[in-house]
Amino acid sequence: KNSMKKDFWEPIIGFEKRYEISRSGQVKAFKFKNKYKQQIIKRTENTRGYLVVSLNDGKKTKQYYVHCLVANAFIPNPKNKPQINHINGVKTDNRISNLEWATSKEDKIHAVSYGLYNIGEHAWSSKLTEKQVLEIHNLVIRKQRPMYRDLAKKYGIKPWNINMIRLEKTWKHLWLKVKKCKHCGSKYIKD
């Protein structure tokens, strides 16, 4: 109860008469049955590690990300950026001092720098290693290629993926750390 008095509260947009959000990410509900009552409602952690809270508009209940509620209530967004970044990388730290509006690109760069987002062969969905990506790229570029579908079958990926590797549209981090051979055009990792 003391934390409710010390923190600064704002009505939650769309739920102005039912809920308020604090600068630290607490959510307060108002009850009006017989008498006016305030209560901090429980936040839960979802499967992605973010805190969510269930809000009811009088008709239906829906889950909302706590960091979104805090940012919408307290943090100006003059450039209309679509995402909210946790500055320290801790998804459950929803204090306004730890949140900032970001573009998708800014958010991804931040996540990679904090080790929150794995890229390349370390990504959970990756089927290839960096070495295999370079092998595929070099075979295709040097025209020593079997058909895309044969390469795709060999590496357990789709022909479309082979073309994206050829065009360097995927594995973008890899192309920044490779050199190109002046004689044959093959790419290899810089020493």
Q: Can you give a write-up of this model?
A:
Strands 1-2-3-4 form a 4-stranded antiparallel β-sheet. Strands 5-6-7 form a 3-stranded antiparallel β-sheet. A two-stranded antiparallel ribbon has the order 8-9. The protein is an alpha+beta fold and 191 residues long. The protein is 29% helix and 23% strand. α5 (148-155) crosses α6 (159-166).
Q: Identify the overall geometry.
A: elongated
- Low-confidence stretches are none
Strand order of the largest sheet: 1-2-3-4
Helicity range = 25-40%
- What is the radius of gyration? 24 Å
Number of helices: 7
Strand content: 15-25%
Can you give me a brief rundown of this structure?
With 191 residues, this protein is an alpha+beta fold.
